[in-house]
Amino acid sequence: MYLTNLKISNFKSYGELDVDFCPNVNCLVGNNGVGKTNLLEAIYYLSFCKGCRGGGDVPNIRRGEEYFAIHGRYGVEGENVQASCVVRKGMPKQMKWNGKVCKTLGEHIGRIPLVMVSPQDQEIIVGGSEVRRRFVDGVLSQTDRVYLDHLLQYARALEQRNRLLKVFWEEGSWDEGSISVWDEQLVRHGEVLRREREHFFEGFAPLFDDYYGWITNGHEKGVLTYVAESGMPLAQQLAEARRRDRQALFTTVGPHRDDVELTVSDMAVRRYGSQGQQKTFVLALKLAQFEYIYRHGGVKPILLLDDVFDKLDMVRVTQLVELVGSDRFGQVFITDTQPGRVEGIFEAIPQVDHLIYTVEGNELHPLTN
Asked: Mind giving me the DSSP string for 123-184?
């Protein structure tokens, strides 16, 4: 699957844009602040029904306008399909697939597999446990709709249970039966989440090992470990934590509290890893994500590389582009601030089909083919 055409209206800094892309490597070059990442975020919206930087939908509407619209045409096994996202102030977000409105956003997620690597991904390493869980849940949600449904149902039950805890505190009351209703829902869906996450790491860890070894030339070994809070059944955890939950006013145990440990030489990369080791972890995680989604879904995800060349030498940059431009990967979008560097990369690897656009004033101009 690859994006052949993108049309944008009133999205972030863009007024109107209509641009075609090639099925292999597409480069967007230009100074900071000219709209390169905004363009990638529009592509991201068509896969995940939301932006890659959070903050809701309405702030992405261009200043002074009432709506934004993003339309993408994709080539899939010789046929064309179209995805659309329209956001209007004061109205529900609308996603369409081949002109048909999606009843739920979950119905659409997974149709256009996509992996994005950006500077914000450093948070996977240095941020809180919720960032790492979000990464795992994001990969699984693209490959397993049943998992996505359990994840959404668990989140709803968790929200209701936490709300009930606050109501009991405000009213000075307690109803064991009401809490038990939501405990049953958390157990029903939460046990599935933990089981599937553990199974996920069995297949994902070897892929991560391969890419981490490639990036470091085998000089280091990174390790991923899924860490659940306790080995006991979730129902027992919830029962034992009720007194603590009443005091904290939120649910203190469950898969929404689990984490992923990232280590090199038995040391936590989050605390002791160098910038280079942390960047290596991010790249290996994201490339492994691509591989995992492809193996489980049979479709090569679109790969977005936003400003990933920083702190990488020219040799490593060229190797990375040669890798993602090979038959092993599919369509790739790369942003960079240095046109000369990008042109130099493809002079070194002329066999990689590519298209370079310069971005200036929220307009795209072909630089070379």
From this structure: HHHHS-HHHHHHHHHHHHHHH-HHHHHHHHHHHHHHHHHHHHHHHHHHHT---HHHHHHHHH
